[in-house]
């Protein structure tokens, strides 16, 4: 708690005043900032107790400003287990944003499509998830001082915001799939057998992030939604070698629709 308060205090002194909404931008999904009136930005490595982003396409800045008339704080770049961080490190920014005052959290990521009906370049609204990262961001001594230890996860994604996103998608004629996101450790991508396993257990998409942040948002009583940009099709019978450039290209293709959905959602808050 002390570490969270130190980071939040530092940011408040630098003008991060009373943000209403927190936003986490996933891999290749940074263009929302073009629509934002940016007032303050701070590199992660300047914020007390903050981890530092090490992935080249995760920029590593916390940005404050106005989007659709709302005060927002945006993570440009997130943290992952595969970078060598703990789950407490990965989720620390969510706790800091909550301490700054956010009332809702919007999350995005890039993911591979497991469901054969979902195509790369499309979006998936996350309705539920499977945690395959081997632990929990709440599995540490003293967690009960930060909130209820045994957090209910029967509905981890806010139903009201999810319904509104589906309405917006219908109104704007945006293809918005709905499904289950499986979070793995990475950084290697999955084998053919692993893709088959993920399909068997009910995953519609797979990625290496998001679930820890969702768990902590629920721990904090923070309403949260998440959308995946589907960047590749994980068909084990027709699997091709991974192409990171194509994955980022597909994220860029899906991004305008993601931005539309979240900006329209913000208008209604």
Mean pLDDT: 93
Shape: globular
Q: What quaternary form is this?
A: single chain
The biggest beta sheet, please?
5 strands, mixed, barrel
Strand order of the largest sheet: 5-8-7-6-9
Proportion in β-strands: 15-25%
The computed structural class is: alpha/beta
EC number: 2.4.2.1
Function: The purine nucleoside phosphorylases catalyze the phosphorolytic breakdown of the N-glycosidic bond in the beta-(deoxy)ribonucleoside molecules, with the formation of the corresponding free purine bases and pentose-1-phosphate.
Protein name: Purine nucleoside phosphorylase
Keywords: Glycosyltransferase, Transferase
Your description of this structure?
This protein is α/β, with parallel strands linked by helices. It has one domain (2-267): Rossmann fold. It is built from six helices and nine strands. A five-stranded mixed beta barrel has the order 5-8-7-6-9. α1 crosses α2, α2 crosses α5 and α3 packs across α6 (244-267).
């Amino acid at each position: 708690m002390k570490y969270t308060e130190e980071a939040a205090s530092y940011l408040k002194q630098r003008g991060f005043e009373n943000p209403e909404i927190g936003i986490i931008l996933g891999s290749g999904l940074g263009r929302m900032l073009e629509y934002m009136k940016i007032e303050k930005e701070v590199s992660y490595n300047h914020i007390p107790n903050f981890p530092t982003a090490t992935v080249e396409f995760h920029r590593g800045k916390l940005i404050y400003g106005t989007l659709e008339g709302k005060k927002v704080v945006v993570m440009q770049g997130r943290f992952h287990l595969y970078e060598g961080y703990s789950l407490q490190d990965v989720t620390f920014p969510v706790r800091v944003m909550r301490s700054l005052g956010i009332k809702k959290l919007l999350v995005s990521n890039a993911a591979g499509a497991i469901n054969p009906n979902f195509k790369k370049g499309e979006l998936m609204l996350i309705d539920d998830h499977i945690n395959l990262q081997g632990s929990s961001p709440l599995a540490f001594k003293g967690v009960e001082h930060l909130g209820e230890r045994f957090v209910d996860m029967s509905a981890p994604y806010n139903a009201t915001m999810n319904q509104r996103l589906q309405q917006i998608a219908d109104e704007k004629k945006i293809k918005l799939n709905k499904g289950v996101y499986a979070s793995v450790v990475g950084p290697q991508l999955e084998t053919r057998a692993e893709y088959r396993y993920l399909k068997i257990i009910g995953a519609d998409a797979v990625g290496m992030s998001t679930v820890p942040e969702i768990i902590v948002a629920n721990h904090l009583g923070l309403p949260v939604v998440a959308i995946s940009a589907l960047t590749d099709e994980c068909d084990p019978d027709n699997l091709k070698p991974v192409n990171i450039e194509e994955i980022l290209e597909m994220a860029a293709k899906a991004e305008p629709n993601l931005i539309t959905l979240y900006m329209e959602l913000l208008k209604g808050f």
